[in-house]
Amino acid sequence: MQNFIDTSRHEPQKKSVAARVRGFDEIYRFYNIPQAASQAERCIQCGDPFCAVLGCPLGNAIPQWLGAIADDDLETAFLLSNETSPFPEILGRICPQSRLCEGACTLEDGYGAITIGAIEASITDLAFAHGLEIPFPGIRHKQRVAVIGSGPAGFSCAHFLLRAGIGVDMFERSSLPGGLMAIGIPNFKLDKEIVQRRFEILTRAGLTLHLNREVGREVAFEQLLEEYDAVFLGVGACGGQLPKLAHERHGSVFLAMEFLSEVQTRLSGGRMHRRFDVRGRRVVVIGGGDTAMDCVRTAIREGAETVTCVYRRDEENMPGSRKEYHNAVEEGAEFFFLRSPTRIVINDDARLTGIEVIRTRLSDADESGRRRVETVEKSEHCILGDILILALGFDVEEFDFLSKAGISTENRRMQIDAETGRTSHPKVYAGGDCSRGAHLAVTAAADGRRAAFDIMERLLGEAP
Questions:
Q1: Of residues 108, 325, 355, 118, the one with CA closest to residue 248
Q2: What average pLDDT is seen over the chain?
Q3: Considering Cα of 384, then 390, then 393, then 395, what sign does the dihedral take?
Q4: Is pTM beyond 0.90 here?
Q5: Which of 128, 217, 279, 388 is the most buried (most CB within 10 A)?
Q6: CB-based contacts of 155: which residues, under 8 Å, 6+ apart?
Q7: Positive or negative CA dihedral for 66, 70, 76, 79?
Q8: Helix or strand or coil: residue 387?
Q9: Percent of the chain, pLDDT > 90?
Q10: Where do runs of H (alpha helix) occur along 105-211?
């Protein structure tokens, strides 16, 4: 270990731009064991590891599994990595590590952070390829839990309950399990076979998965409360936010998740509505997070003539992953920073022809520590486009069954106990975007694990 002076940080190999924009295959070729070991050996094994303590919402044992893979002990690294995380090979691919574990790495300032995300993904990929398995005990207890939603929070809750031998029934309204991991994150970041493999593992461990079963419609929430010992709500936040501009529901204006899910449907063998065909069109994406980058990079692969991204803050203050921004730039996207939309431009034939924006500047920080955005007077100008994609964040849906069951909400978000994930109903827990608002897959996974641990303690009388 501590080989950071002799060994530099090396990212996983990427496909060439010309190759990767022609399709939706994953662009990274993750490490083999010697490569993972070489990068892991750079770790200085801090006495107080900021990567885990400050940077990782799951508190993963990062120094420990880095040490194990550096010693060529794949099995120990695999077991340690999967002990605290429900899907490390997925989070290693989609987490914004520059804002989390790698951003907190001691080596980040001067030597380059350990490539924690790539090593994390590589360990489990390699372990599965070598036939290693996650230990599940089988269903050992009579208690059963209903999990509503199969996204990161629901999956995580189910995973840790099954690790404790508690039976889980999962209800998903879509035909595919995984939530946004299945329909919202493009294949070039996360191959869907990786998501499917995880559900196959949980099914073998005892999960009963009910697809195309929407709670509140095909399944009564009251029935779940009667039949199960606990219920976990991981229904996410899928409603796209709108900028409150005229013509925002024009046929050539898409919400980000509409566009991404339609493309994913086509890639999965279904039919995509023709209005989402962007071939030969000038696409403008509004937003600066990872979802905006997903839309930008998807539109490029879908054959758009040009793809432009507009964001009201500057490059340094983009909320998304740095590597996703750089990948988008490499693939040909153009970025207009410090601009905010003011008007959707429609011509006399009712066709969208562009988006009027106003220049902005950053001022003092607000109470959250983020710098405020001010507009610059008389700086309006137009950016030409035929298609406008809005990636402005997500709202929690409104579910009638929550109020009927006496579950407290605020601005549609479920109010939960921060330590346990419990709602105001004694049998119901919640976590992920439906309680905290649109956030990260890793924080949703942490929420699901926290709730699972409290459910274990309440149902079994013992802490995990």
A1: 355
A2: 95
A3: positive
A4: yes
A5: 388
A6: 86, 87, 177, 178, 179, 181, 198, 199, 202, 234, 445, 448
A7: positive
A8: strand
A9: 89
A10: 116-129, 152-163, 180-183, 192-205
